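Slide 14.
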Amino acid sequence: MSNTALDILRHTFGYDAFRGQQQAIIDELVAGRDALVIMPTGGGKSLCYQIPALIRDGVGVVISPLIALMQDQVEALHQLGIRAGFLNSSQDWQTQQAVIQQLQQGQLDLLYIAPERLIQPHCLQLLQQIPVALFAIDEAHCVSQWGHDFRADYLSLDLLQREFPAVPRIALTATADDRTRQEIIERLQLAQARHFIAGFDRPNIQYRIDNKNQVRRQLLQFIRNEHLNDAGIVYCLSRKRVEETAAFLSDQGLTALPYHAGLPQALRQHNQQRFLREDSIIMVATIAFGMGIDKPDVRFVAHIDMPKSLESYYQETGRAGRDGAPATAWMAYGLQDAIQLRQMLDASDGSDEHKRVERYRLDAMLGLCEITSCRRQALLHYFGDQAADHCGNCDTCLNPVDTWDGTVAAQKALSCIFRTGQRFGVAHLIDVLRGKPTEKIQQHRHDTLSTFGIGDELDEKQWRSVFRQLVARGFVGVDTAGFGALTLQEKSRPLLRGETALRLRHEPADVPRQRYRSNKQQKALQNDQDRALWQALRDCRRELADEHGIPPYRVFSDVTLMGILETRPQNLASMLAISGIGDVKLEHFGQAFLDVVREFDRDRRA
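Slide 15: predicted structure.
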């Protein structure tokens, strides 16, 4: 069993060895037993059901919510010589009938299908008439009403255990806290399944969070300095912000496309296909975009609005660097993020229990933004994983944060909130503290308060930092009426009384910090010859991709191209030793890249 799986891994997928728990998961399914797999994005989840589907008799049925991506996933398998198909509402009747005929004639190894189609009686009847190798339930967190991508259709998937009791099932997700994990087990009837929980760490991703200060300018500077000509995703909270940001980046000479649920479906699909099939595309999107995106060479994910939870943040940042090469997760965060998300949560129609859970998740997200120790350690700890105190690849490790005793400043801020009646927003409170005789202050006679002018030792930016940290840490709340008034929380009492001290983050100086760039790929391109060969290999990949009508990374990934550059293979047999090159890809593409290397070497010798 294991030897067969390893042969498929080597000759079909082009990898020398399994990673982590892949081998054990595959053996479990091949033996006909169920499995629950929690593995980070880019950890190789798909191999865990694709290889058993090739080994076991019958077709492997993959249940996925990602209708827009099924065609891309199936095309990727075709490039590897695997017989795969999909059934969804994007196909016409004739195309669906052709796929059904392939199923009935045993001509498919893998079938991708959406949950809403699977649970229909005629589809269940079709599957009961053919041998089914396994059921793979991808993005399994969608079954949980506590999850961040809940899909009601997933609630009906417990029928698989009743209708196909002898067929093994595997449920897979990249993110699931304890509550979500238990709901997956309960709703999918996986009590007897073996659990495989891989570490959540993605060491190739560099996590960084900056304070907002002209955020579009910050985003542009980040992309130009570190990821020019790279593919990336920029997440925004609103549709309007998506369109404005995409237009801004395009005006600056970058190729940026918008994506949100309010755009026409045809335009969304067109933009998504461009992102998947072209190099150097930046997708500016709401969270409507991204789940299951199978593009390995996304070099950065940027958030210009803070996500609502660490689950969402982890899932979205995990779309960077799926190929294992260095990538960046960058976010700009400010006081207004904390205020807006607290307002949205408090004003929502959810139950008290739902609000309590969501408030906990938001507090954890805010805590990550304000933390002064290693961000990776805090992120992994949230998911119950362990990490070193110092990861060496996040901003707080690379540029340690200075702190200061903010107790007195915090007391002044809290007193000002109280004495102005807990009815005013940050801008007015700062004016009071700094003693600015504005019309509004004079109208409310706030220039007569004891807190008027007691805070002139800090400038406006520093006071905004103080208020931001007080909101983030739960000392201060936000009204639900939408006016942004700050209110005191019970937690503030000991601080006001001087019974506890508070250390705050120093605002970084408004000058460029060290230039971040820890990129193995860039280090390998240290001379003009290597850079010239790298570009020649990329040009060859683009030509082959255009010729076959597929995305460039479906030919070879950047990691595989780097393997070719570093090893300089002189024959086809030696190319098989490079990660990502299997028998079928070698046959289709190997000679073209070999010719590029040989021609380059001849020119270099000449």
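Speaker note: The two ends are 51 Å apart (CA to CA).
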